[in-house]
Amino acid sequence: MVSDRMNSRAALWRVAAGQRGYFTAAQALRAGYSYQTQRYHARRGNWLAIDRALYRFREFSDLPAEGDEQLVRWSLWSKGSAVVSHATALAAHDLGTANPSRIHLTVPRGFRQKSDAVILHRAELAEPDVEDRAGYRVTTPLRALAEYAADGEDQDVLDGAVAEALEQGLVTRRKLLHAAQALGARAELGVERALGAML
After folding, report:
1. pTM of the full structure
2. Do the beta carbons of residue 73 and residue 52 sit within 8 Å?
3. What is the pLDDT of residues 22-38, one digit of tens each?
4. Domain segments of the chain: what residues?
């Protein structure tokens, strides 16, 4: 019995370690924890209850934060459907000064969950537009810049982010213009202004 508990913990720990300590009730169930046992661990404080059916090993909360733990949380909340995008992706890539008050996520059109903490954008993203990170996915710098331009938010933030992305060699002018054109006139205009501001 003790061996079974140790094996279950080890299995769940391996999953959670790749997700900054977070795990879902479904992942715990697959590792061998019944729902009753999950409630026990949450009540005892062994696991931190983050949201409905979302937990975190207490040990991970004591580690220094890396800044993007919350993005792992929202990826799990979406059951892996969401991709961090728009202003939040710019912040994840450390481009410009974007600091959104809510998390921007791109989800498939049929996605049903809602939360006041996130802004959902509905689109089907192509694999080349997405990067994998530890525990979550994020749109590439190229896609994030075009998305932010399409939102038409703060041109100064976009100007800075575009300048940094070009300086770091993350994008080219030609590819950036092409990506913006694919997202519409507002995105194209924002990117053209950002590129013009560099001259």
Report:
1. 0.83
2. no
3. 999 999 999 999 999 99
4. 2-61, 69-197
